[in-house]
Every structure is written in structure tokens, then in C-alpha cells.
């Protein structure tokens, strides 16, 4: 008797490790991870509330590949989004 089936398990990689949150570069296309409780370093800002990428390729991870934030927190096209 043969058993067949499909697994619906899909691995989703987190953008940052546990105890960290992602921050984008100001006027750029890069990002970094910062320890919870710490402020973003110079040249980085927090993502707007509700628009934080959590897993690689999730809705907001994909969105922020072509968008970034300026020094005033305004959403703009990422310079390398072409």
C-alpha cells in the first residue's frame, strides 16, 4: 500500500532575528536590524506602524524593495528601484 500526499508546510524566513526589528535606510534601498529597545542608528528610521516587514517576501518586504523613507518620514521611490 502506497501513501501519497502533499505537505502545505512552507518555511518563511524572518527579516530579523528574535529580539530585533527592521529599519530602512533614509533615502536608500537598504535596511538593517536593531535590537529591541534601541533606537535606529544614524541614517536609519523606523518603518511606519502597520507597514513593517516581518518575513522575507511578505507584503511589506516586497513593497519596501521599491519604496523608502526620506528624512521627514515621507514614503518615496527607492533610488535603485529603477
UniProtKB/TrEMBL annotation:
InterPro entries from the UniProt entry: SCO0607-like
Origin superkingdom: Bacteria
The protein, known as: Lipoprotein
Lineage of origin: Bacteria, Bacillati, Actinomycetota, Actinomycetes, Kitasatosporales
Amino acid at each position: 500500500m502506497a501513501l501519497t500526499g502533499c505537505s502545505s508546510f512552507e518555511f518563511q524566513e524572518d527579516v530579523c532575528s528574535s529580539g530585533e526589528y527592521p529599519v530602512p535606510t533614509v533615502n536608500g534601498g537598504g535596511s538593517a536590524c536593531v535590537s529591541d529597545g534601541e533606537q535606529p542608528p544614524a541614517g536609519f528610521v523606523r518603518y511606519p506602524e502597520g507597514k513593517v516587514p516581518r518575513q522575507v517576501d511578505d507584503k511589506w518586504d516586497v513593497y519596501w524593495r521599491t519604496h523608502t523613507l526620506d528624512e521627514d518620514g515621507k514614503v518615496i521611490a527607492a533610488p535603485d528601484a529603477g
